[in-house]
Amino acid sequence: MTRKKLNKFLFIGIFIAVISLGGFVLKKSFENNRCANTLSCKESFIVSVNNDEQAIFNGKVIDPPDIDLAQKSTEPHVLGSESSMGDKHIYVDLTTQTLKAYEGDTLFMETKVSTGKWAPTPTGDFRIWTKIRAAKMSGGKGADYYYLPNVLYIMFFSNSQVASSRGFALHGTYWHNNFGHAMSHGCVNLRITDARKLYYWAEPYTSENESKPASKDSPGTLITIYGEAP
């Protein structure tokens, strides 16, 4: 074989290897960055109220709660004020399906939650990067399809490994009452009353029904998620 032909075969081999490696990297990149709510991540980041729509979950049609964003919060604003008790920290234990929120060493609340069943909830340390008063979430395919308008008290979290664009959040849940068991597509489901309490306590602080991103003056509360879903 001549040197010219050898170089040609070498070039083709390298080209194929580069294309294969590129495809693998792109696939992994997609897997690491795809949206937790596969059909509506962009919509989930925008405040929206759809009182005339019905929800679909687990093949069942459900009436979502009506929302009036003009209605004032029933939570006292002292929950969102500065405190000398210490930093706020939320812990989510996947093994026991339990959430605990502390201010310094003082336990603020403890409640059962539902984490990822159809897709895993990520583990690690996160920060709440924005809070949305109400939005729509949807995703899945076939029997796994879900469409959830009027999801309440959403606290989106992220870190350097889990991008904010993936849409993981703590949020209120009206489509099931099976807390203490994995039931979500990756988010952390809370009872609406618990989500409302946590929403007005956690940073970034909000006034009434506004939605707000984290900032230097009001950074997002730290969330630690650990354990393994049963």
From TrEMBL:
<keyword id="KW-0472">Membrane</keyword>
<dbReference type="InterPro" id="IPR038063">
    <property type="entry name" value="Transpep_catalytic_dom"/>
</dbReference>
<feature type="active site" description="Nucleophile">
    <location>
        <position position="187"/>
    </location>
</feature>
<dbReference type="GO" id="GO:0018104">
    <property type="term" value="P:peptidoglycan-protein cross-linking"/>
</dbReference>
<keyword id="KW-0812">Transmembrane</keyword>
<keyword id="KW-0808">Transferase</keyword>
<dbReference type="GO" id="GO:0016740">
    <property type="term" value="F:transferase activity"/>
</dbReference>
<feature type="active site" description="Proton donor/acceptor">
    <location>
        <position position="171"/>
    </location>
</feature>
<dbReference type="GO" id="GO:0005576">
    <property type="term" value="C:extracellular region"/>
</dbReference>
<feature type="domain" description="L,D-TPase catalytic">
    <location>
        <begin position="88"/>
        <end position="226"/>
    </location>
</feature>
<dbReference type="GO" id="GO:0071555">
    <property type="term" value="P:cell wall organization"/>
</dbReference>
<protein>
    <submittedName>
        <fullName>ErfK/YbiS/YcfS/YnhG family protein</fullName>
    </submittedName>
</protein>
<dbReference type="Pfam" id="PF03734">
    <property type="entry name" value="YkuD"/>
</dbReference>
<keyword id="KW-1133">Transmembrane helix</keyword>
<dbReference type="InterPro" id="IPR005490">
    <property type="entry name" value="LD_TPept_cat_dom"/>
</dbReference>
<keyword id="KW-0961">Cell wall biogenesis/degradation</keyword>
<comment type="pathway">
    <text>Cell wall biogenesis; peptidoglycan biosynthesis.</text>
</comment>
<keyword id="KW-0573">Peptidoglycan synthesis</keyword>
<dbReference type="GO" id="GO:0008360">
    <property type="term" value="P:regulation of cell shape"/>
</dbReference>
<dbReference type="InterPro" id="IPR050979">
    <property type="entry name" value="LD-transpeptidase"/>
</dbReference>
<dbReference type="GO" id="GO:0071972">
    <property type="term" value="F:peptidoglycan L,D-transpeptidase activity"/>
</dbReference>
<feature type="transmembrane region" description="Helical">
    <location>
        <begin position="9"/>
        <end position="26"/>
    </location>
</feature>
<keyword id="KW-0133">Cell shape</keyword>
